[in-house]
Amino acid sequence: MSFKEAKIALVFDWMTTYGGAEKVNLQLHKIFPEAEIFTSIYNPKKFKGLENATVHTSFINKLPFAKSKHQFYLGLMPYAYELFDLSKFDIVISSSHCCAKGIITKPETLHLCYCHSPMRYAWDNWHQYISEYKMNPIIKEIGKRKMHKLRIWDRMSADRVDHFIANSSTTQRRIKKYYGRDSEIIHPAINTKKYKSSKETEGYFLAVGRLTTYKKFDLIVETFNKIGLPLKIVGSGICKEELQKQAKGNIEFLGFVEDEELKDLYANCEALIFPQLEDFGITPLEAMASGRPVIAYNKGGALDTITEQTGVFFEEQSSQSLIKAIEEFQKRKFNHHNIREHASHFDQSNFKKQLLQTVREKWNKHPR
Predict the structure, then answer these.
(1) Residues 255 and 360 in one domain
(2) What is the rounded (10 degree) CA torsion for 213, 218, 219, 222?
(3) Tens of pLDDT along 21-52?
(4) Which residue from 29, 220, 254, 363 has the fewest beta carbons nearer than 10 Å?
């Protein structure tokens, strides 16, 4: 059977909000528009882009609050993914940072996993999540006990994957550490051509993302409270109310914004603040595609995309270290044309080309 004749399925973790993984999922859908999609939870009212797709959801999708509080059902997800019947498909591509890779396929079916990260809350971020995540102490204690079993399942389910694709060098190292598997890297990408640039800025700094503990928005707020420079924060999450109470008048919370407004915010900011340790990080690419530099923590996926010509790094996740980086940024001049040129290497056309080449090569070598 040729690659063109192969019947393909896509498997996603959940499709309820827009994040880096979900943006990759939309690209996979565009590359394979005829592929059926399997996911634990899908909220079409909040998530756009799959209107013309055949989407299969798990039983979790019908449970109370699943479409807004997917984390409540993490313990059920291994079972939910093992229930999906993928026996009629020749190629299955899972896009996974949680349980999507745990689907069961026939021996002759090729299963490639595009891995955003082994489960952060089960492995390297386990102790940080338990100490910092805002939740009922009783639920947290139950979660600690359940996570042990989930960790065992996660490791075992990794053996069901025929080939891993990592989204960054950081994720590649994690896959090797926790799953004992080799992988190749294909970086996520954006449509760099849709972003606009401006010669002049409006004097504010920008932070974009889900307002959760590991994204380190508390560090951003603490820092800008001290230095008094204008800051705009885009996004929502469980930490929003607490962060707003801490923030001084120079910090503005915009919540969710539409794409066109976000493009304007990128184009007119001084720089994007990116203090978290990410597997990859889509927002720095979006900022650089707009010609704007990034002030980033010197670890993780940021090292795959940001250079000394496109940003400034800081060494510790502390306000002192971040302030030092902002002061260094203010002394330097950045060429917005050069930054945009650098970002063009991460355009979605390159992602599509690399992914199709990899899937085709693995299919041609796969025993069947």
Answers:
(1) no
(2) -170
(3) 999 999 999 999 999 999 999 999 989 999 99
(4) 254
Backbone angles phi, psi at 326, to 5 degrees: -65, -40
Question: Counting every residue, how long is the chain?
Answer: 368
Give dist(CA 147, CA 261) in Å, integer. Answer: 39
Going by pLDDT thresholds of 50, 70 and 90, the confidence category of residue 367 is: confident
DSSP 101: G
CB hemisphere CA count around 204 (13 angstroms): 17
**Residue 252 Cα distances to 144, 246, 255, 282, 335, angstroms:** 36, 12, 9, 22, 27
Output the pLDDT for position 142: 59
In this prediction the pTM is 0.86
CATH value at residue 169: 3.40.50.2000
More confident residue, 238 or 100: 100
Q: Is 203 left (phi over 0), alpha (psi -120 to 50) or beta?
A: left
314 and 222 in a common domain: yes
Statement to judge: residues 354 and 313 lie in one domain: no
Assigned token pair, 303: 């090292």
CA distance 235 to 300: 22
Q: Could you give the 3-state DSSP secondary structure of residue 44? A: coil
d(CA 339, CA 344): 9
| Strand-pair category, 205-208 with 231-234 | parallel
